[in-house]
Design a protein that fits this description.
This protein is an alpha+beta fold. It has 2 domains: 15-160; 190-343, no CATH class. The protein has helices at 15-25, 29-40, 101-111, 130-140, 145-148, 155-160, 168-180, 190-197, 203-208, 211-230, 264-270, 328-343; strands at 56-64, 67-77, 82-87, 119-123, 152-154, 234-235, 246-253, 256-263, 275-280, 298-303, 312-317. Strand 3 (82-87), helix 3 (101-111) and strand 4 form a beta-alpha-beta unit. Helix 8 (190-197) crosses helix 10. The longest helix has 20 residues, at 211-230. The termini are far apart. 26% of the residues are buried.
Length: 348
C-alpha cells in the first residue's frame, strides 16, 4: 500500500502508537459505541456500565504500594472495578514473561471476585502465541480454556464494524487496519480467471506470464484466511514419504483427516485450485467407503506405486462454485461445517 492510499501507513505500525490512536478515537461517539457493543457481543463485563472515554488510560502503570505489576496497554477504571486491555497488533509479537500472570495478580488484588474476567486481549486472528496465552492463563487461574475464549477478541472482527463510518479519522484507521491485518478483498482479474480455467499451453509461456505469481499468491492468501484465520486448523507439514503437494490445513475427525488445501496435483486433475479432501487419518493409503453426505459429490484421488510418495487415497469434494465467486470463503466454510458434522457421526 502506498502512502497516497493511507496516511497512517508507517505511523500505526508501532503498537504503542496504534493503541494511542485507537484510544483517541474513543472520543468519537459512534466509534466508542461500536467498541462497547463489540466487547458486549461476546462478554458481559461492560454491559449496563456507565462508561465514557475519559475512563480509559493508555500505558497505565499497575502499582500497588511498592509492588509493580507491569504496565497495561489500555486500562479502564470503573471505580470499584478495574479492567485491563492487552493489545497486540502484530502476529509475531511475543508475550512478555509477565503476561498474563502479572495482570492476573494485579486484578486479583483490586477486583477480588472473578478477577480473571477483568482481563481482555485484542489480537490479530493469526496471532502466533495464542496457544501459549491460553496455557499460561489456565495455569494461573480457575478460568479454564473453554472460558478464556470469551476474554480474547480479534481486531479483524472489530474493524469490519467500521466499514461505513464517515469520520475521516475513523475511516483512515479502518483503511489502515484492512491493509495491516490483511483483510483486503481477494479479487481476480480477467487474465487470472482465464488461467484458473486453463493452465495449458507452452510451459515457457506459462512461466513467463506475469499474472501467474500474483494469481498463486492470491489463492494462497485465500487458503490461509480460511484454514488458519477462520477454521484455525493445523497446517500440514511434510513428513518423509508422506504425500503432500502444495499448502494445506487439516483437522482430525474420528478416524478421518479432513483437508483443505492448495494441492497442485488435485488442481491439475479436478480443475479446482482449492480442494476439500477426506482420507484415513492413521493410514492415508487405506481405501474406505465413500461418505454419504447430502448434496456433496466426491471424486476419487489416488497416488499409487509412485517412487516419490507413499501410496495415498482420498475422496475429493466436487465444488459447485469457483474461487472467483464473491462469496467463495463463506460458501466453502459452510460446506466444511456440513462435512464436519457428518463425519463426526461416522467411523471408517
Amino acid at each position: 500500500m502506498s502512502l497516497e492510499k493511507n496516511i497512517l501507513l508507517n505511523v500505526l505500525n508501532q503498537e504503542v502508537v496504534f493503541e494511542e490512536y485507537f484510544c483517541n478515537l474513543l472520543k468519537e461517539e459512534k466509534f466508542f459505541n461500536k467498541f462497547i457493543d463489540f466487547i458486549s457481543s461476546k462478554n458481559d463485563i461492560l454491559k449496563n456500565k456507565n462508561i465514557n472515554y475519559k475512563m480509559f488510560y493508555t500505558e497505565y502503570n499497575l502499582q500497588i504500594k511498592e509492588k509493580n505489576f507491569g504496565r497495561a496497554d489500555i486500562f479502564l477504571d470503573l471505580g470499584s472495578e478495574k479492567i485491563i486491555f492487552e493489545i497486540k497488533n502484530k502476529v509475531y509479537t511475543n508475550l512478555t514473561h509477565k503476561q498474563p500472570e502479572m495482570y492476573l495478580d494485579y486484578l486479583k488484588k483490586v477486583n477480588k471476585k472473578n478477577f480473571d474476567t477483568f482481563l481482555l486481549f485484542i489480537l490479530p486472528k493469526r496471532y502466533a502465541y495464542e496457544e501459549l496465552l491460553h496455557d499460561r492463563w489456565s495455569n494461573k487461574s480457575f478460568y479454564y480454556k473453554e472460558n478464556i475464549k470469551n476474554q480474547i477478541f480479534y481486531w479483524e472482527d472489530f474493524v469490519k464494524t467500521l466499514k461505513y463510518e464517515k469520520n475521516p479519522f475513523v475511516k483512515a484507521f479502518y483503511e489502515f487496519c484492512i491493509y495491516w491485518f490483511d483483510m483486503e478483498s481477494i479479487t481476480f482479474t480477467k487474465d487470472e480467471k482465464n488461467q484458473l480455467i486453463n493452465l495449458k499451453g507452452n510451459s515457457m509461456q506459462i512461466i513467463e506470464n506475469e499474472t501467474l505469481p500474483t494469481l498463486l499468491a492470491k489463492i494462497e492468501r485465500c487458503l490461509i484466511r480460511i484454514g488458519s484465520d477462520k477454521l484455525k486448523w493445523e497446517q500440514i507439514s511434510s513428513k518423509k514419504g508422506e504425500y503432500i503437494s502444495g499448502h494445506s490445513y487439516h483437522k482430525k475427525i474420528n478416524s478421518y483427516s479432513l483437508v483443505l488445501g492448495l494441492d497442485y496435483d488435485m488442481w491439475s486433475e479436478f480443475k479446482q485450485p482449492i480442494n476439500i479432501s477426506i482420507s484415513n487419518y492413521k493410514d492415508s493409503s487405506e481405501h474406505f467407503e465413500k461418505p454419504n453426505i447430502n448434496d456433496v459429490n466426491f471424486e476419487i484421488f489416488e497416488i499409487k506405486e509412485n517412487s516419490t510418495w507413499n501410496d495415498f487415497f482420498a475422496y475429493v469434494v466436487q465444488l459447485d462454485f469457483s474461487i472467483d465467486d464473491e462469496s467463495f470463503e463463506d460458501k466453502i466454510i459452510e460446506l466444511i461445517k456440513r462435512i464436519e458434522k457428518s463425519l463426526k457421526t461416522k467411523t471408517n
